[in-house]
Amino acid sequence: MPPIDIKAIVIAFTAELGADYLIMLLTFSFFAHGMLTPDMTPEEFARIRETVFDTTAFLPCLLVLGTMTTILGAYFAARLAKRIPYYHGLAMGIVGTVFSLALWRSGATWLDYVGLVTTIPASLYGAHLARKHMPVES
């Protein structure tokens, strides 16, 4: 098996997690429609969170945005490694799947299952996009 650039995987996965977190915060704020206030109680926040999560468009929006960050994370890893892009994309998919399984909770939603199933294909697609922009190896 060709050597995987662990440094590229760690950097790209960290960047992907950061992007996922930031996008989730921004998406939540967008769907909260100004209901968030600095002096709210934890009970009020829990009610707003439940309202936002019950919004029909919130979870599909997170699914699309999460899939995009998965694709971009694998693209980034493959470009950082500068070689064997599909192996780096697969490594990103495996790391993402293991990370998801490590944080798995008993009340999983359809979003969790779809995200788990699409992580590796999305990562391989990101590696495929990176391959198109890399010089041909001889």
Describe the overall structure.
- This protein has five helices and no strands.
- The chain is mostly helical and 138 residues long.
- It has one domain (6-132).
- Helix 1 runs antiparallel to helix 3, helix 3 (58-81) packs across helix 4 and helix 3 (58-81) runs parallel beside helix 5.
- The longest helix is centred in the first third of the chain and has 27 residues, at 6-32.
- The radius of gyration is 17 Å and the shape is elongated.
- The model has no long low-confidence stretch (mean pLDDT 90).
Task: Report Rg.
Answer: 17 Å
Number of helices: 5
What series of H and E elements makes up the topology? HHHHH
Helix content: over 70%
- Which residues sit in consecutive blocks of at least 5 with pLDDT less than 50? none
Mean pLDDT: 90
Task: Give me the oligomer status.
Answer: single chain
